[in-house]
């Protein structure tokens, strides 16, 4: 059976636990990634004479396994595994497996490295068999690790990774996905880090392209080389060195030029000119634009990118937001760039997206094609659309899609989000490109109405602002509001009845029915399509096709945001469906059960005894099968569980009611059957303790009923468990398809879309209640209540002999 992505990720993250504690994530990442790399290339290329990566004799993962337990294991790995691989393939594997400061000495190092290698020995981690054509499972695992390493490394050491979500945006906005690419198409990243941005561009290209990159840090350059191999781009040319002072990709004495360039250079690099004399730069990168300020290197990298582009080339660069409005030398450079028409677009991103900094950033899109004819810059402000992810912000799938849609289509239908800004308008603003100058905030101020506060009543303008709801349900407005005086309304229903009035209104009921039918139409055709999947299909291609189809299906539907529905779909894919898809791509429609064996850790930290935790089936979970084939038994179990909960609650109430110092349970150390029975025996002949005895007998009766229910429920659960287990071998392929597609996948999506409909109701309900509460007490009413309270206070003081002046 193919390994699930989630299992692969957890296995790799477990390897980090072997090293965590003794070193920083920026250090132990080297060991984990090198092991992943060696295991992968050994599985894929051992014994292949013309493979893109050569495995010298004695330098495979199997040879590394043979070193487990040897006293000099670290030294042997360095000399006989890493060095031969580096020499044969001209790559740098930055990890010292004999570093006593990080790995410990003697027995500690031997055990730590042995345990680390053992994790990668897992038979399920056979990378020669667990890779669907066109889907980089290992590349995704590498990216998973890099994100976690960057997160754990903290603010100062996260520079080796560009968030995948941002990389995907850059890959799309340069338009490579629409180009007629060939292997001669070139893509360059002058500050490539671990290579994730380059690879996202390669992934977006219709055909294989040629990748070039340069990275200053030696260790990070090695990460990029490994990353290229893991993503099946072993031919990529990654060099190491200072891009500005010593660019390695040259065409004779000039800079090599490329079709596409993408970059995430270090923000505001204060050392950008080290080793470089800017005013006599032999590559003439600053000629005609101006020299960037000594302490701000952002435009130095951007001008290097422009110089590295072919005449029809396109580029996208991530820069701090300050490049859009800072003055002096940068203002002159910005003016020259705008006047030459080189900037095609600017995309503002949320703050705190990147691991190396919390400041907001932007994407500057450069396009030399038709630069002289360009008459505007397309601007997108996506700074407000994100989700919190621990200490960082993160772009959601819907945020990425909306940015790409707006930019690709040059869609200015929402001028608060995106529009084409004419160069004439920019010139009037002295070439300041700060987005708020051109895109007004979507967050309008919620104004307080003075007359509403003074005289009461909900301003009609606030109700008019909910026009999207009234356009869909015209009569609903009249149900919720009534006229109070010109320009002001009052609630027509009680506050407590607002949500019910919305839910039960005939127009809203009809709307939800239309939305249910709308989903059912998509569900019906998608169900048939999914049931036709055969082994070998490409899960990534499938999810793109389905998600795009769903997004298009919901475009233009009233009240529902199509991008919200799209996000629900992508969340389900990430949390569960992708594992199912990869299982189907490898094994087809097979629902095999397996035992779940958990290995406990011994006191010494080594693997201990194994515990059988029952059985499971990944593709068709037990709950899904039980719901269809054991529905009556499940209903009975649910009923008994409810009875058990009620019984347990009665016991808890009884113990709380009689649990004080004078209560029936006061003499007990613990309230359990043994102590309650003993106490009852002790007082059963005491005439003065009959009330206490009655409580204890009631407790015993309830406890016996609870115990009997638990026993019966356990027996029924075992019976259902056996029924379900026996059903799996009898399932036909068609039945498995129904269970997976209809009962598991599409039912979950249906519930998620219904959740979006519930959010619509909640938003309307909350706004109506908010407005009602805001203007519920006009000033005269407040003043009258204050006077009444003052009168009460004065009366109390008078009775006590005081006079309040």
From TrEMBL:
Coiled coil: 630-726
Residue stretches making up the N6 adenine-specific DNA methyltransferase N-terminal domain: 10-120
Pfam families xrefs: HsdM_N, N6_Mtase
Broad enzyme group: transferase
Keyword flag Oxidoreductase: no
Keywords per UniProt: Coiled coil, Methyltransferase, Restriction system, S-adenosyl-L-methionine, Transferase
GO BP terms in the entry: DNA restriction-modification system; methylation
Listed GO MF terms: DNA binding; N-methyltransferase activity; site-specific DNA-methyltransferase (adenine-specific) activity
Record domain DNA methylase adenine-specific: where: 135-446
InterPro entries (alphabetical): D12N6_MeTrfase_N, DNA_Adenine_Mtase, DNA_methylase_A-5, DNA_methylase_N6_adenine_CS, SAM-dependent_MTases_sf, T1MK-like_N_sf
UniProt-recorded name of the protein: site-specific DNA-methyltransferase (adenine-specific)
Protein species of origin: Hydrogenophaga aromaticivorans
């Amino acid at each position: 059976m193919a390994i699930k992505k989630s299992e692969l990720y957890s296995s790799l993250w477990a390897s980090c636990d072997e090293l965590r504690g003794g070193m920083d994530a920026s250090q132990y990442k080297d060991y984990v990634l090198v092991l992943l790399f060696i295991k992968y290339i050994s599985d894929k290329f051992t014994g292949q004479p013309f493979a893109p990566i050569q495995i010298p004799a004695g330098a495979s993962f199997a040879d590394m396994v043979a070193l487990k337990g040897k006293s000099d294991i670290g030294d042997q790995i360095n000399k006989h595994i890493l060095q031969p691989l580096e020499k044969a393939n001209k790559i740098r594997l930055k990890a010292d497996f004999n570093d006593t400061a990080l790995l410990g000495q003697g027995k500690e190092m031997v055990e730590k490295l042995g345990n680390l290698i053992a994790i990668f020995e897992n038979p399920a981690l056979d990378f020669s068999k667990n890779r669907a054509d066109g889907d980089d499972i290992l590349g995704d695992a590498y990216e998973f690790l890099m994100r976690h390493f960057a997160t754990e490394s903290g603010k100062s050491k996260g520079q080796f990774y560009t968030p995948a979500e941002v990389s995907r945006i850059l890959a799309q906005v340069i338009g490579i996905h629409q180009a007629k690419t060939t292997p001669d198409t070139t893509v360059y990243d002058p500050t490539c880090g671990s290579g994730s941005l380059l690879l996202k561009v390669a992934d977006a290209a219709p055909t294989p392209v040629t990748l070039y990159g340069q990275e200053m840090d030696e260790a990070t350059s090695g990460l990029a080389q490994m990353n290229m191999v893991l993503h099946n781009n072993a031919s990529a040319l990654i060099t190491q060195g200072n891009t500005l002072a010593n660019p390695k990709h040259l065409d004779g004495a000039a800079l090599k030029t490329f079709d596409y360039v993408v970059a995430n250079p270090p923000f505001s690099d204060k050392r950008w000119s080290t080793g470089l004399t800017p005013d006599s730069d032999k590559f003439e990168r600053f000629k005609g634009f101006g020299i960037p300020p000594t302490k701000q290197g952002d435009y130095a990298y951007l001008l290097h990118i422009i110089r590295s582009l072919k005449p029809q080339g396109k580029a996208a660069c991530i820069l701090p937001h300050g490049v859009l409005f800072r003055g002096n030398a940068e203002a002159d450079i910005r003016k020259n760039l705008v006047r030459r028409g080189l900037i095609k677009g600017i995309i503002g991103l949320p703050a705190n997206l990147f691991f190396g900094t919390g400041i907001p950033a932007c994407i500057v899109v450069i396009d030399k094609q038709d630069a002289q004819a360009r008459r505007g810059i397309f601007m997108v402000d996506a700074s407000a659309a994100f989700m919190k992810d621990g200490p960082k912000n993160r772009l959601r799938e819907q945020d990425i899609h909306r940015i790409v849609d707006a930019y690709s289509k040059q869609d200015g239908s929402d001028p608060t989000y995106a529009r084409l800004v004419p160069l004439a308008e920019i010139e009037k603003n002295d070439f300041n490109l700060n987005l708020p100058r051109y895109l007004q905030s979507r967050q309008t101020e919620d104004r307080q109405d003075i007359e509403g506060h003074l005289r009461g009543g909900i301003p009609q303008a606030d109700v008019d602002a909910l026009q999207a709801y009234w356009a869909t349900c015209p009569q609903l407005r009249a149900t919720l509001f009534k006229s109070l005086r010109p320009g002001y309304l009052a609630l027509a229903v009680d506050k407590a009845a607002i949500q019910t009035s919305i839910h039960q209104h005939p127009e809203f009921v009809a709307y939800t029915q239309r939305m249910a039918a709308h989903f059912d139409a998509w569900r019906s055709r998608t169900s048939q399509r999914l049931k036709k999947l055969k082994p070998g299909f490409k899960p990534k291609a499938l999810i793109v096709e389905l998600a795009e189809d769903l997004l298009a299906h919901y475009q233009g539907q009233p009240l529902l945001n199509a991008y919200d529905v799209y996000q629900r779909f992508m969340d389900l894919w990430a949390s569960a469906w992708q594992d199912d898809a990869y299982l189907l791509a490898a094994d087809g429609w097979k629902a095999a059960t397996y035992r779940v064996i958990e290995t406990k850790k011994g006191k010494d930290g080594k693997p201990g005894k194994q515990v059988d935790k029952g059985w499971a089936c990944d593709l068709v979970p037990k709950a899904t099968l039980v719901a269809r084939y054991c529905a009556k038994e499940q209903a009975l179990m649910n009923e008994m569980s409810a009875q058990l909960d009620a019984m347990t609650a009665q016991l808890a109430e009884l113990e709380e009611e009689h649990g004080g110092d004078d209560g029936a349970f006061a003499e007990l150390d613990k309230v359990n059957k043994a102590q309650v029975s003993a106490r009852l025996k002790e007082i059963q002949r005491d005439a003065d303790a009959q009330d206490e005895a009655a409580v204890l007998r009631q407790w015993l009766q309830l406890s016996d009923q609870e115990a009997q229910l638990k026993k019966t429920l356990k027996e029924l659960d075992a019976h259902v468990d056996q029924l379900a287990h026996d059903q799996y071998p009898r399932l036909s392929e068609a039945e498995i398809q129904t269970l997976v597609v209809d009962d598991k996948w599409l039912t979950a999506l249906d519930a998620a879309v219904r959740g979006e409909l519930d959010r619509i109701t909640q938003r309307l309900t909350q706004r109506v209640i908010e407005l009602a509460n805001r203007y519920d007490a006009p000033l005269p009413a407040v003043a009258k209540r204050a006077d009444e309270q003052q009168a009460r206070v004065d009366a109390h003081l008078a009775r006590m002999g005081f006079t309040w002046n």
